[in-house]
Amino acid sequence: MSALSYARYGKDNVRLLKVHRNPDGTQDVTEMTVCTLLEGDIAASWTHADNANIVATDTQKQTVYVLAKQHPVNPPELFASILANHFLEQYSHIHVAQVSITVHKWSRMQVDGQAHPHSFLRDGEEKRTVECVARRSKGISIASGIKGLLVLKSTGSQFWGFHRDEYTRLPEVWDRILSTEVEAKWHWREFSGLGEVEKEVAGFDAAWSDAKKITLETFAKENSPSVQNTMYLMSEQILAAAPRVEAVDYSLPNKHYFEIDLSWFNGLQNTGKDAEVFAPQSDPNGLIQCTVTRKGVSPKL
Ligand SMILES: O=c1[nH]c(=O)c2[nH]c(=O)[nH]c2[nH]1
Fold this sequence. Notes:
By secondary structure, the protein is α+β, with helices and mostly antiparallel strands. The protein has helices at about 45, 55-70, 75-90, 195-200, 200-220, 225-240; strands spanning about 10-20, 25-40, 95-105, 105-110, 115-120, 125-135, 140-155, 180-190, 245-255, 255-260, 280, 285-295. α5 (about 200-220) packs antiparallel against α6 (about 225-240).
C-alpha cells in the first residue's frame, strides 16, 4: 500500500511590474517574480482524481495580479504576507500558504545631472528576496534576503593555518583575490498575523539596506582570514542591527582566481608578489555556508 505523505502546489514565475504614479508627476516601478504554493485539504486531487478543492494555479496567478493592483507591493515582505494571508482567508481548506518573491532591480536614471522622473536602468543583478509562510492559527514566518550580489577584492584576503595531510596541495597564502556572489537570508521572529507585519514595514526596508551595507563594508574592510570568518562577522552585525531578526544565513561560493606561472616565458615573473595576470575559474568552486542565530533562539524556516 502507498500513501500520499506530502503535497503542495501553486504557480511559479509569476512576473509583474507595478507602476506607481506620484502626485508630483514622478513615477516609481517595481518588478518582481512571485511563487505561490498551497497546502491543506487537497489530497483527493492526487489520490482520487477529485479536483473540487483545487484552487487552480491559474487562479493563484490571477490573484497575484489582482492583489498587486489593490495593495502596495512594497516592501515585498508586506505584499508576500498580504498574498499568503489572502489564500488562508479566502479558502478555509487551505492551511498553509507559501509566497516567495524575487525583486528585480530598477534604479532611477540620472539624466543631465538630475534624477529622471520615469526612466530606470538595471545597474546590478542583485535581487531582494522574501520567503513568507502563513500557517492557519499559527502566524506568519518571513525570511528576507539578498542574492546575486557579485563582489571581488584584489587584495586584503588570506588563507593559511588550515589542516594539512597527504591529500593537501594548496599552499598557504597571505595575499589573494577574494570573490563571491553573496546569498544571505535573515529570518524574522514569527509574526502573529498581518497586522503585526504591517507594523514592521519600515524595519523590512531598514534591514535590507543595513544587510547590504554590512555585507559590502565588511567584505571591503576586513583583512579576511577565510570566507568562513568574514561571513560570521557579517551575520553578527546584521543581528545587532535588526533586533527582530533571529537568525542569519549566508551562502558564499568562493570564486577562485588562480595565479598563472609564466616563468616558462623568458623567466617572466607572475606569481606571489609579482602576480598580475590571473585565470578566473568557473568551476569547481568552494561553497561556504552558515547560520548564525541570536542566543537562545532556533530558526523557524
Ligand atoms: O576562505 C577559504 N575557506 C576555505 O575553506 C578554503 N578552502 C580552500 O581551498 N580555499 C579556501 N578559502
